[in-house]
Amino acid sequence: MLKSKLAACLVPYVPGEQPKGGNAIKLNTNENPYPPSPKAVEAIAAYDFSKLRLYPDPTADSLREAIAGAEGVRIENVFVGNGSDEVLSLAFAAFFDASSHPVLFPDVTYSFYKVFCSLYGITYEEISVRDDFTVNVSDYLGRKISGIVLANPNAPTALSLGGDAFRALAEAYPDNVIIADEAYVDFSSLPSLVPLTKEYKNLLAVKTFSKSRSLAGGRIGYAIGDAELIKTLRSVKDCFNSYTVDSLSAVAAREAVLDVGYFSECIEKIKSARSYAADELKSLGFVVTDSDANFLFVRHEKKSGKELQSALRSRGIIVRRFDSPRIADYLRITVGTHDEMKALVSALKELRL
Ligand code: PMP
After folding, report:
1. Which residues line ligand 1 (CB under 6 A)?
2. What global pTM score does this model have?
3. Beta-carbon neighbour count of residue 115 at 10 Å?
4. What average pLDDT does the segment 285-289 reach?
5. Per-residue pLDDT tens digits for 98-109
């Protein structure tokens, strides 16, 4: 067999479809409907391409410095990588052991966590969320663990936990790392946990430029935490690939993070489209969780998730559905522009639910 035993038993994560061509309304991968900051685009246009001859800065200091400024931390508290998927993957390798004690995460959450565990041989336990998809923090306490990972807001449920929950976990397990995956936090009504990372040396916040900063194609993610955690992440990264962040993306991301005005403008537009779409869907009889993210998690009792997804697809709207227990009848619908949300609502009205 021309594969390792490991490769033979891996079940990879399946990313959402990226259609080639066509003019479908794409609401399936939680991308931002607005372009990146014009300053990021200008920075790429002004880039001296002869510099592409050279390797990038292995620690992307200029980008880390800008992120540190925006997040109110020091540069030694920032780690950057090729998308937050890579940052998370390196964090699993850096902080979790293939021991008898499991890493805990919810049964309904980002499905990549299980894949990272299988890649590194890490034992995990999925803790059931309540019927309303909320996470019960006390289920995570009083255990022997290797670590905890919570997406906050969670995906695909779009629900958030408050800072107190993370305080309780960080205090309960001072010798284990607690990862808060904050991919969607910029759309949340609750603040980021970054300030808590100064208090708790075992709390790591992971964020991305893919959603709120419109740079999914640039592949930039980052982690904020105690300098010791960041050093460990860097040493694991340097056992894998010294140059995970390319020169062009680093330049664009730096400008994007500095352009606070554009960022807030886009976030406000998305939040407004979210509340419009959530209200309209509720009036069509959908159950809609109280979204703190740039997507809605919805179901309708009159049609299965599969039927709804294909009915939308035949009307040129692509949404995401996960064929897994508990959530197969739900759709995860990215919040797009106001016009895209209007198109979604009209398409759903045609179904006469
Ligand atoms: N975390 C969560 C919860 C996500 O939904 C995603 C997007 N699929 C990611 C992390 C990864 O995002 P990226 O690699 O684009 O930064």
Report:
1. 83-85, 110, 151, 155, 181, 183, 208, 210, 216, 221
2. 0.98
3. 18
4. 98
5. 877 999 999 999
